[in-house]
Design a protein that fits this description.
about 110 residues; mainly beta; SH3 type barrels; six-stranded antiparallel sheet; two-stranded antiparallel ribbon; 10 strands; rRNA-binding; KOW; Ribosomal_uL24_CS; RNA-binding; ribosomal protein
Length: about 110
Amino acid sequence: MKIKKGDKVQVITGAYKGTIAEVIKVFPKDDKVIVEGVNMVKKHLKPTQANPDGGIIEKEAPIHVSNVMAYDAKAKKASRIGYEIKEDKKGNKEKVRVYKASGAAVK
């Protein structure tokens, strides 16, 4: 999975199509991600000692990773992600993620 926690992504399909937000959590085994402010669901909480009132809260639910694309701020559009081997002056090699649209490195 090429999407990581903290990446800016754009939702490409569904009710939240076009939304640009940050990835909060990643579930690689299930191929799902939680994106900030996307796929909001209401959850009913029972009263507990920690939360004596209980109540209904709104929280983000996971969506499939195929429904989002990494957002390239330089190109101002959603982009695929590839990998490149970068070599520094000392000769150390490092594998970095790059946007296919602009060629810029992902933070």
